[in-house]
Amino acid sequence: MLRNLLNIARTKIKWDNLFSLKSCRSCSTANDITRLKYDPNDVNSLMEFEGIWPEDAKEQFIKDMRVVESFISDKEEQEILTEIEPYLKRLKYERDHWDDAINVFRETERKSWYPQNRTIINRLIQTAFKKDASTLPHIHVLDLAADGVIKPHVDSVRFCGSTISGLSLLSDAVMKLVQSTTDPFEAPDEYRQQPKVDTSNLYSCKVLLRRRSLYIMSNSARYNFTHELLSNEESIFKGQTVEKGRRISIICREEP
To answer: Domain of life here (predicted)?
Structure first.
């Protein structure tokens, strides 16, 4: 009788340990980004600063690089996708962009929107831009594949004004902004082309862009920093992996 009880106890311990091991493995492979808490009163919850920042530059950057969490609802996201997906599916993913800034993507521009989606676009414009600002009439729709990347670049002042705003659909992602060594007002006219430089001594910031969030990049953040969307190999925010799947961004730009 005693021997039977001991065997039952050993079996239970064995299965408990096996269950714990499986649970642990599951935790280690899961996308840990859900553990990162967002605090609307703490900018550091969505930003990770790297390098030695001058205090005034950091202060200005925080004012000029804003993220609005949960800008749209699940339903609103689906309504936008319902409108744009039929057209995007007819396009092939491209490997190279003409200005070498994007890889594995497809894109289009849209001026006319279904009424319910035009309401969302108008809300985006009212949130991101000053009242007297004029925005480009065509909205940029950029579909980036799961293995696609956006390379470091500064949008040319010839094609875009002081504010760029983007709505993130389908996936979380990490944007990285790095101190630029080029004055955009003295740069060539090539749209978004950015010369390769050693960034090891430059200060930078990673910004967490969750699904359905809105980023607003203006003034110093727009002109004085390159911005890029990190590949899955580099997509780490505060020590945790942020797995980027297919991502669509709805981008509005101020007129130059």
So the answer is: Eukaryota
